[in-house]
Amino acid sequence: MELQRRHLLAAASAASLAAIAARAAAQAAYPTKPITVIVPFAAGGPTDALARVLCQKMSEILGQQLIVENVGGAGGTIGVNKVAKAANDGYTLLFAHMGTLAVNIALYKSLPYDSQKDFEPIGLGGTNPMVLVAKKDLPAKSFAEFQDYVKANQKKVQYGMAGIGAASHLGGLMLNSMMKVDVLEIPYKGTGPALNDLVSGQFDYMVDQAVNVLGQIRSGNIKALGVSTLKRLPQLPDVPTIDEAGLKGYEVTIWNGFFGPKGMSKDNIAKINDALVKAMADAAVSKRLTELAVDLPTKEESTPDALRGQLKASIDKWVPAVKAAGVKPE
User: Fold this and answer.
1) CATH value at residue 88
2) Residue 185's domain is classified under what CATH number?
3) Which of 73, 165, 215, 266 has its CA 20 to 30 A from that of 187?
4) pLDDT tens by residue, 293-308
5) 248 vs 27, 230, 231, CA distance in Å?
6) Is the dihedral of CA 184, 186, 191, 193 positive or negative?
């Protein structure tokens, strides 16, 4: 009987060790199949474009394809929630900007996920600067003139944006709040329609991501009056920052990052982070993202802990600002 018990214990121990070894081998081999990367917006936007550039190179580095899947709707919450509810084996990831994980906390009374508890930060994937642009026949030729004009004409001035919670909404919200003006807000179903109407002069100004407006600025269809970063953009060296032009403290940038479901292993997180850092260091990738006006982070700024801090800082900054403005989702 004792001998039988020992045999059973030995067998159980061997099975346990085999299971541990199998899990370790699986982690060491990760990834062994394609990885789905959820972008919680429609294809063609800045976040989607950035995700596709990074994922293409990361696929080469990891030896497995990273497949971008666009899951839009409800301000990005549908796609984000899909990742929150996914298995934490590292084969479903999220690539999203700060709006979906920080600003939406203030926009929605009840989110189906907790931005800080339901995800594992993996790494920062780039920051998009923004530009204050106006219709080409707006009388103002500088930011100072623009600010004076808006303050003097609040009853007739209109600003446009690509929907509640969009990057252009946040940029305009902060600008108008800091200028202390109350102007008519024109929401659109996306950046494309909004930009088309700005070009045709249907409203006066908007603040949008540089990648969306550079082409129209260079074509002379709209005018650039200031950039949202604290340093001038290499792509628009003659356009001052809004901060240096007189609105001290104005800074709005849209960061994008990779996240995994809660409980994703540290080893798998490290592998995705390593591939991300290597992808951003690639000369061809860096050149392409510079063309898109994306500001690439340093290796230190791309760590999981750094992204966790970035998320918290964005929540601390934007949730009070959006609530104070009384903004509600569409």
Assistant:
1) 3.40.190.150
2) 3.40.190.10
3) 215
4) 999 999 999 999 999 9
5) 49, 10, 13
6) negative
Q: What are phi and psi of 134, to 5 degrees?
A: -135, 160
Please write the tens of the pLDDT for every residue from 115-160.
999 999 999 999 999 999 999 999 999 999 999 999 999 999 999 9
Predicted structure pTM score: 0.85
The verdict on 123 and 259 lying in the same domain is: yes
The amino acid occupying position 123 is G
Number of domains in the chain: 2
Q: Is 8 part of any domain?
A: no
